[in-house]
Write a structure and sequence with these properties.
Elements: E1 12-14, E2 17-19, E3 23-25, H1 40-51, E4 56-63, E5 75-76, H2 83-95, E6 99-105, E7 133-134, E8 148-149, H3 152-171, E9 176-181, H4 186-191, H5 206-209, H6 211-223, E10 230-235, H7 246-258, E11 263-267, H8 285-294, E12 299-303, H9 309-317, E13 323-326, H10 328-332, H11 336-343
Helix pairs in contact: 1-2, 3-6, 7-8
Domain NADH:flavin oxidoreductase/NADH oxidase N-terminal: 8-344
GO molecular function: FMN binding; NADP binding; NADPH dehydrogenase activity
Keywords: Flavoprotein, FMN, NADP, Oxidoreductase
Length: 361
């Protein structure tokens, strides 16, 4: 790709990994696994984005332990049994020129709930539900499970679950891992004063509330190959009074970078039903820009209502972010990457099977 090509189609080097372009398929829960195992749905769903030329494709959130699933149908990476099915996905994506990452997650108090089209709130034990855990005993909402407050031993166990999952991700052939600390899931629950009322070393001060995240990141970085990039997703703000703020996100971003995080994936919200958000195109980009401006040498990924190629290119040209992650646009058009190339007047190489469908008009 020439140096004067649109930034969206310029490569980006992360550790020894070089992304062919800046287009990232964002993690999207599909609620289509059984016992956490990837299946043909995941192969076809994720593989189509490689056929269309996305630079980096993330799986949906993969639970690092069974109780960390959002729903009984979530993808998992808590067992060696999960490695081979996921390897089918990584092999296919690599064979067609894209790179692939996996998001590692624990849902905490938002676990054991129905997939969106199957119901709402807590799944009863008799229908496959389980006990959930969190920083304290506050539930996310009245219809959600009431969590058991985690002990220090629980915290240490979950930390090691993240490490073990990252090591399995390496065996499955993934190029990148992302630690999910956003959207009201377990690590985010520890960050926010609204969901963390602990009085021990994991609650209260900024240092204490960020301790669990930092423990996980340091441990995962130690168990994940140094030549492969580590992403972390944060919610930059809770959009609620007394919650986690952008200023705290920027401070944490600096700490994460110093401990080996290569890319911060900047999202927002998801922690509380009291959040007040007015979504509009690019509404989360200023958060990514704030992190980008404050933490030198940390690559930043913008996400959230970025839909047009021109909008994505503008974000990169303005220096607000280094990568663009898209979710719903890819659900609407799995070939969004080719659409973007045409709109930005870029010549891209298509897989041979699709070349005769390419129109120049």
């Amino acid at each position: 790709m020439p140096d004067n090509a649109p930034r969206l189609f310029q490569p980006l080097k992360l550790q020894r990994l070089t992304l062919p372009n800046r287009i990232v398929v964002s993690p999207m829960c599909m609620y289509s696994a059984h016992d956490g195992l990837a299946n043909d749905f995941h192969l076809v769903h994720l593989g189509q984005f490689a056929l269309a030329g996305a630079g980096l494709i993330f799986t949906e959130a993969a639970a690092v332990s069974p109780e960390g699933r959002i729903s009984p149908e979530d993808l998992g990476l808590w067992s060696d049994d999960h490695i081979v099915p996921l390897g089918r996905v990584t092999d296919f994506i690599h064979a067609h020129g894209s790179l692939v990452g996996i998001q590692l997650a624990h849902a905490g108090r938002k676990a054991s709930t129905y997939a969106p089209w199957r119901g709402k709130g807590a799944v009863p034990h008799e229908y496959g539900g389980w006990e959930v855990i969190g920083p304290d005993t506050q539930s996310f909402a009245p219809v959600f499970p009431t969590p058991r407050a985690m002990t220090v031993a629980d915290i240490e166990r979950v930390t090691q679950d993240f490490v073990a999952a990252a090591q399995r991700a390496e065996m499955a052939g993934f190029d990148a891992v992302e630690v999910h600390a956003a959207h009201g899931y377990l690590l985010h629950q520890f960050l926010s004063p609204l969901s963390n009322s602990r009085t021990d070393d994991y609650g209260g001060s900024f240092e204490n509330r960020t301790r669990f995240v930092m423990d996980v990141v340091r441990a995962v970085r130690g168990g994940w190959p140094m030549h492969k990039p580590l992403f972390v997703r944060l919610s930059a703000t809770d959009w609620a009074e007394g919650g986690w703020t952008l200023e705290q996100t920027v401070k944490l971003a600096g700490l994460l970078h110093r401990h080996g995080v290569d890319v911060l994936d900047v999202s927002s919200g998801g922690l509380t039903t009291a959040q007040q958000i007015t979504p509009e195109p690019g509404y989360q980009v200023p958060f990514a820009s704030a992190v980008k401006g404050a933490v030198s040498n940390l690559d930043v990924m913008a996400v959230g209502m970025i839909e047009s190629p021109e909008q994505a290119e503008r974000i990169l040209q303005n220096g607000d972010a280094d990568l663009i992650a898209l979710a719903r646009p890819f659900l609407g058009d799995p070939h969004w990457s080719q659409f973007a190339a045409k709109r930005l007047d870029v010549e891209v190489e298509l897989v041979p099977q699709y070349q005769r469908g390419h129109r120049l008009d």
